[in-house]
Amino acid sequence: MKIGASSLAGIDRPLEDTLEFIENLGIEYTELVHQFPTEEFDTDILESYNLKYSIHAPFMDVNIASLQEKSRLNSIKQIKNSIDLANKINAEAVVVHPGLASYLPRKYFLKEVYDCVRKSSEELRDYSNDLGVLTTLENMPTFESMIYYDINDLNDLLVSLDMAMTLDIGHANHAGYAADEMIFDSIKHIHIHDNFGDDDSHLALGEGSIALNDIVNTLEEKNFDGIYIIEVNDYDSIKNSYEYMKKNFKI
After folding, report:
1. Fewest CB within a 10 Å sphere: which of 24, 134, 137, 216?
2. Residue 251 — very low, low, confident or very high, per pLDDT cuts 50/70/90?
3. What confidence score (pLDDT) does residue 132 get?
């Protein structure tokens, strides 16, 4: 079982502090959040730790579903930078958000929004394949402007494009999916955190109501070989989540 933790938990601290904390816990992987305040990484520093990496492409002010072509192309450019970084440091996966639909696009042009996601995803897929990088799309929580919180729709898109999914378990629970409704063959990467279904709260594992054991055990029975990235809010939640995983699963 491959286990990692997201640098999101230390987004307001120096990256070195977060990498050191994760490494000292004995966790194998770190998912680097590739956006402000860490838009650039010193790869020599990354290589100085006994860690392997995945990359979360930027999502702040980035929208591959944008109907504004210049905005969409700029978003693709930023994500390609993440794919380049993944190629440079041999990261195991890149995570991409499928984009947003604000009020007017959602009301009048929703089909065109989804057409943009497909077009953008095809370009990112081809770019990734040329570099040998696994680029994945992540399911979203059920918030206004979010799209692809329906993981069945996301899976259909990914199967049609021969792409992979990052299953965000907390997002799926927020969208109302039961444990046995979250499993798809397209899943190659995992974000794991807890909540009570009423908010995307990114709680430590075991602090919410998600049937985490059912989900993880099913994935393991299906020989899932990706990384479980603990994506929580602070260092204590990383530590407590890792203890939960060691207690409940074969690590």
Report:
1. 24
2. confident
3. 98
Please answer whether residues 170 and 194 qualify as being in contact, where contact means their C-beta atoms are separated by less than 8 angstroms.
yes
CA dist., res. 216 & res. 191, Å (int): 11
pTM over 0.90: yes
C-alpha 193/C-alpha 205 separation (Å) is: 6
Q: What is the DSSP string of the chain?
A: -EEEEEGGGGTTS-HHHHHHHHHHHT--EEEEE-STT-SS--HHHHHTSS-EEEEE---TT--TT-SSHHHHHHHHHHHHHHHHHHHHHT-S-EEE---B--HHHHHH-HHHHHHHHHHHHHHHHHHHHHHT--EEEE---S-TTB----HHHHHHHHHHHT-EEEEEHHHHHHTT--GGGS--TTEEEEEE-B--SSS---BPTTSS---HHHHHHHHHHTT--SEEEE--SSHHHHHHHHHHHHHHS--
> Is pLDDT at 178 greater than 90 in this prediction?
yes
